[in-house]
Amino acid sequence: PTEGSPLTPVATVSRYACQRRTTLENHNKKFTDAFEVLAESYEFNNMERPCLAFRRATSVLKSLPCAVRCLGATQDLPCLGQHTKKVIEEVLQCGRSFEVEELLSDERYQTFKLFTSVFGVGPKTAEKWFCRGLRSFSDILTDHSIHLNRMQQSGFLHHGDISRAVSAAEARSLRSVIDGAVHCVTPAATVALTGGFHRGKEFGHDVDFIVTTPELGEEESLLPNVIDELKKQGILLYCNYQASTFDMRKLPNHHFEAMDNFAKCFLILRLESSQVEGGLHCAEGDIRGWRAVRVDLVSPPVDRYAFALLGWTGSRQFERDLRRFAQVERGMILDNHALYDKKKKEFLAASTEKDIFAHLGLEYMEPWQRNA
Ligand code: DGT
Ligand code: MG
What we know:
Keywords: Magnesium, Metal-binding, Nucleotidyltransferase, Nucleus, Terminal addition, Transferase. The chain is of the alpha+beta class. It contains 16 helices and 10 strands.
């Protein structure tokens, strides 16, 4: 039998992304690209369940070691419902899905896609603008009854640059920029690259870092000082700093969509072309000599470092399933701050990511295997 035929015995695929090693090599891109459009469209319509169903299905197909070549090959796979199978069948037969094609040319989908590409604009704002009959950036920017917050103003100002992907070379260069600024203000502090680049991605929409201090409590002044330093260097184009609201007595929250309570800042930085090996990944920026890049810094207390690292490394689907696994299979609550055992009524401490996998009774997975 050929690869992917229903006669080939396949090892059972777990319902949880945290039990599937998923690298960046996706053999089922033609299906997962279609699913992504559907998931996004449901997200734009505030329909969480079907949105998550398509995200889960995407993640299952991404984990497979080979391409799905017939519908029969999907029969033992978890998380694939009728709707997803119908799309797979269409793609197998016609090379495309008509439902997806229709969405891609749908005015509502296109407008939401455009509006949510702006930093600071989510589906709710996009909906508000769409309902007012706005369809383009110029519609928004010339409508004086629309109030843009500071984040959205910067989002529009730098849209050309920050809507372009950040390359791994640019992420490396930003790492030395952040390293420099952090060590200038706190020599003992540590900087770790996290998010998609930590999982080995070649491109990302931003660059994420975790910074902390070896001395508990010293992290409190870290980000404000780093921000001052970046300002002094003249490379801070936008900054939204959120002080910590972390309360260690509080139980963790298994809802992934809630952001964590660590001190963090969402930045737009100016990256010089001369600092990037091979130049910028942004043609306009290369001519100009610099580009704007989105950077997130999060600064947990050192005793929560492992939880923060695990939570910020992603992928989002990996994180959702890690929390769901903890809750459903282990009776534990996991978030970016802590792990709590509900039966024993106790917090489980961890100083490395491996400790957390071990508490959960999961085999350890390297960041590059978490591309669910
Ligand atoms: P990208 O798009 O190339 O930047 O891809 P990622 O994986 O770096 O995604 P990003 O930067 O949006 O988020 C990095 C990680 O941060 C993500 O994998 C999990 C965490 N994170 C981001 N947003 C949220 C959120 O709303 N809630 C929670 N709990 N974690 C989040
Ligand atoms: Mg990222």
